[in-house]
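Lab notebook, bench 4. We co-purified these components, and the gel suggests they stay together. Before we commit to crystallization screens, I want a quick structural picture of the whole thing.
Request: model the full complex, all chains together.
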Amino acid sequence: MKKRTGVFVCHCGINIAGTVDVKKVADKLSKHDGVAHSEDYVYMCSDPGQNLITDAIKEKKLDSIVVSCCSPTLHEKTFRNAAKAGGINEFQSEIANIREQCSWVHKDKEKATVKAEKITRSAVERVNKNESLEPISIPVTRRAMVIGGGIAGIQAALDMANTGFEVVLVERSPSIGGHMIQLSETFPTLDCSQCILSPKMVEVSKHENIKLLTYSEVQEVSGYVGNFKVKIKKNPTFVDPEKCTLCDECTKVCPVLTSNEFDLGLTGRRAIYMPFPQAIPATFTLDDKHCPGLLPIACGKCADVCDPGAIDYDQKPEIVEEEVGTIVVATGFDLYGKEEMAEYGYGKYADVLDGLQFERLCSASGPTQGEVLRPSDHKVPKEVVFIQCSGSRDPEQHCAYCSKICCMYTAKHAMLYKHHVHDGQAYIFYIDIRSGGKGYEEFVQRAVEEDGVVYLRGKVSKIFEDKGKIRVWGVDTLSGKDIEIDADMVVLAQAMRPSKDADKLAKLLKIALDKDGFLQEAHPKLRPIESVTAGMFLAGAAQAPKDIPEAVAQASGAAAKAVAILSQERLFHSPQVAKSFPDLCTGCGMCVDVCPYDALSLKDGKVVVTEVLCEGCGTCSATCLRAAIEVKNITPLQIYEMINASLGG
Amino acid sequence: MQKILTKKSFPKWVANLATYQIYAPVEKDDLWSYEIVTADEITTDYPNTVLSPKKITFPQREFFLEFSQNDDGIPGVTELLPEEKESVIFGVRPCDAKGVSHMDKVFGGDFEDAYYWKRRNQVTLVGLSCNTPPSPNCFCTSVDGSPHSTDGLDVLLTDIGDRFFVQTFTKKGDRIINASKGLFTAPKPKDKTDVEKVHKDAVKAMPRSLKDTKKIPPKLKDLFEANLWDEEAMSCIQCGICTYLCPTCHCFDINDEITSHSPLEGKRVRTWDNCQFPDFTMHSSGHNPRPDKASRLRQRIMHKFQYFVEKYKNFQCIGCGRCISKCPVGIDIIQVLEKVRDHV
Amino acid sequence: MVNLDDIKKEAHRILKEKKVKYIIGYTQGANGFPAVPVFIKNPEDADNLVWNPACIHNLTRFLRDEKKRRAREKHPDNRPVGIIVKGCDSRAINVLLQEKYIAREDVFVLGVSCEDTGVVDEKKLAKKLKGKKALCFDWDENRNLVVTTEDGKSTINADEVLAERCLECPAQSPVVYDILFGDKVKLSPEDRFKSVEKIENLSQKERWAFWKEQFDKCIRCYACRSVCPMCYCDECVVDTISFAVTADTTAEEKAQKIKWIDKSPVTSETYIYHMIRAIHLAGRCIDCGECERVCPLDIPIRFLNKKLEKEAKKLFDYEVGFDPDQLSLVSSFRDEDPEDFIR
Amino acid sequence: MAEEFEPKIVAFLCKWCSSAGSDLAGVSRMQYPSNVVPITVMCSGSVSPLYILNAFNKGADGVLVSGCHPGDCHYIKGNYYARRRIALVKELLEYSGLEPERFQMSWVSAAEGTKYTEIIKDFVKILKPLGPQEKLRRSQ
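Here is the predicted assembly.
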């Protein structure tokens, strides 16, 4: 039984009518089998145009429509809604693209008209076999997960938690805070980083809607938007935070001394330690890589002195399973290793620091309580050279991209240095100064004018130790003069790179990476916060180098996006999915092998479709030798009819 | 009438039939088939052709009508009858001719199939009696046939050395003789004795035989449910060889075959169909009265040796042996029939 | 050397011990050549089994019937079926396993090695014997066929009478079996694809002329499909209606049946039929040559399948039927798959 | 006077790359012959060999299958399966005597309007001298 199809040919002003005889197309189609109504109009997408459609559907009792107009990427939704408004199922509407694929690419009116006819006929044949479909609705697990407890992760978690949804915040290290908590002051306002971050950290720890999992790593992710299942490995801290009174006796007796990550090796710590005073959760962690005590009878001193008996050597890693509806990924960044910098001495020289180390050096809570001293001999450095773009903007040897924040923090560093060492001299080697951002340019000017920082435009070719000094060979490309500075200290503004193992995590989450290994956004301009996987969002430096305000902004954006999902009872998935025919299926499983989404599986020797996972690509139907599986509304029969229609005449 | 035609003058005779389309068995890559030929291509020494002359009298595909739809969607229909062209088929084996005569019964009688007869009436069959069996599986004599049977033939030639002994049985036959009166002479007594001898020897040379065929039809009546069919059909692969190659199988299918969809153009086509194909008896309800190969094999045997016999008092099988020679799995109708005959 | 008595003994044993439901094997045909398939249920009938160069058929074709039979029966006897396979046939078993059409425990495989010969091509032999009937024949140890006809013994070199596929066979002995008769051999013929190259070397016009003539002979008896162990679809593109039709199939669904091919045996339709057939067998055909053997009009159908076997090997390094666990040809890919033909 | 032969081409374009690419050709007002009628499918991986054969059977003089570049498939890997399947079909058709030029495959990204235009232009140019495709065409 043929349907009663309505055909609507759009002039699109002269965009179509200019090269296609739209009246003729409408007239020809009116005689096509199953076409009950056919007309043309100047702008189908206009309100009057759409009304034309809805009215025709009602008056002529149409059960399906074809609109011959521009590409479906533009107005498919429009006309599906028009169909709905007319009282028929939205999937009874198809578009015949006679603009981009016809009128715009041809001049010969006669030929273009014939082609427009064929395209329209084939759309009519297709819609003739369209099923009425209802979007597949999926219940939403109304919880969120944030991976990464840096400023971005903290912000996203708090924003979501404050809208009333439960959030699971997963952090790999013993405390949240990320790199921001290591900073001393922040540009351009020079306010104390810890002072502005620690309140947020505390808020996280106290928030009733936030479940904090530190010292934990994501191990497995399954499911789909609205219904993710995440397996998390909680590493043992060997300390029970409930019992621990933070008396700090244990560290006093711990015989092991190892380098302190928090101070980037500028200081040491014990095997049992608290990462830093404001750590959240506020508790000690026993790092089993260094503690001998885990080996039976090896040490056990800390346990002996721990009155509350908070230390438990027998703690084992546990696997926590969380069900969430959406995931925000905020895995942050690491600095490009000094050891990579051949020209700057592979990080061998004690007095050549990277940006973060210098932050610690300036920090009141740092190794030197905020006094700037050379790590080698604890003398006050009188001449300090700051090198920008160390590892950035160097496609040949290092990273091709600009790490964006270095110009600003180097200016800040130079400034902080001057504030600590008034008679000292700061030099900054730079390629360009990129100070776009609110108050940023002014900040750089202040560094030059108020603190007399010397900016040298050029690259440093080599640095090496010589008689307790660091000799810096560079060139000032403005004066063209070679420059040699015997510095007491050199600070490298190392490039930002994705944090360690971000790629492994991306694999688990099935989200893509860009060429530099940062997480790939769904669209560089229009969807900068979404990942390519539905229901997963990106926040902070994990997506690209960012400074704090940007990271926070994106985090709040991601939170908003995530909440947009969580605030729904159910999600809707396109119903144009695969459909199997058990009578024809022999259970060979070829379709199961080719499905990119694991949407197909075999059950009692027949294939079954998990509709919510199916994206409707149809590779299964082309692979099946027995026509036992096809995609709704673009079935082999429809293609067959479309081929026939396209070739007729 | 009875005549003598020397082999020398045979080509002349054929040449005189210029107004006819001439068919005869020719060989290509070891396969023999009836093709349009010239006088000199005709030979008397050939094995069974793959397909019998059925392919000419009842082609695998023929048109009934042509349909189309004009620009305004108005449909048009024209009947298509077989073309006007008289033809003579030389070298028809007596068994194959008998097959044609059986098919005449099917397409004639109460209802005459216009398409079949339009074609059939234009065909003159000139047989050649089999002095030596054309197939190792010949058994015509077991099914009321013979190497020189005349049933269905217009003319029968018998090769007696340097000349043919010519018999005609129909006006059609007489016509093609009279077209070249001069070439034919009246048979002498020697010719007659020679023919009789040749015919007798041919019967003796029959490679295979099936005794008491008469017993088979009544026996079949009670064997419909027998599990003999299951056993015999075990190795059947359900291909269409036995039936498509059979000179008497005549089942057909009618389809509308579309050559262009817009504007609509196509033909209504009759093609051979085949009771061994699983979809032959498939009902649109999904019910298939012959659901397995046993029932399909049974159908073939029953049709040839019971249903047809009931209706037309003849075995439908004419003993050409094609189905035996070409069966991919060596199902041998003679052996099957013996099992039927001796079934207790 | 394969000893027929060993085969008979084993067949007798497994039937007697009721290990198998029945055995699919070969027995003497009515007119000598070729052998014919036989289905043996009683131990004593095991004696009717034969093994000789006339054992052409790929018996795995009949596993389909067994599967359908079981589906029909209310209380099916699910014991395995004993089946005699040659090297090529055994690879068909692997493909059926790979496609989960049968389970390993459904079959008890009696593998017989072709050793360094194979099966005889009926037509080649007939030519050699000039119409004389072969009463009995077998291979001698020097790869000669010893034939006895009414006028005595004669010997023919194997290469003159072996089926072409045997001359191009990559595995003369079974790759999967429960018991093996004869010696394990794996000759790799220097040229597995000679028959294909013959046609490849023609010009495009000549190729078309060749195939057109072949296809025009086709009477669509579908013997090539029916005999193929891989053509087990319930519904075939050439069938006029779908076997998936059941009492509750709606009229719409019935109307969904696409007519990819018309029934008329004309060049275009026959061409399409053979193309679809070949494509559907890509990466599945194990070159048992049955399709070609059974064709009453001698269409060299095997050349089509062999071509795709060659391309699968050449382009994708894909071998059919050696590993039942590999992904099938068209449901897998390699990043380095060639794309020089793509613009 | 006989008018010049105009080949009929069916182009199976994947929705995300090739169809978008041909849209771009339109948006940029590039010009190419009108011989091609596009059929947009979800993914080149969904193009069954039957579609190609049917197109030829119903009178196509040329068939084009076009998808995303390797690695760019909207469905992650559909075009890799297409690549393999189409390679086999192409080999088989050539082997069985069809003019190889009649069946082509291409990678056209959403940004490659120019490439799409060139492909169609060249395809038509190649097909014209070949004349109508009768081999697989249902006509008799």
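The longest helix of chain B spans residues 293-312. Worth comparing against the SEC data before the next meeting. Chain B touches chain A at residues 71-73, 260-263 (CB under 8 Å).
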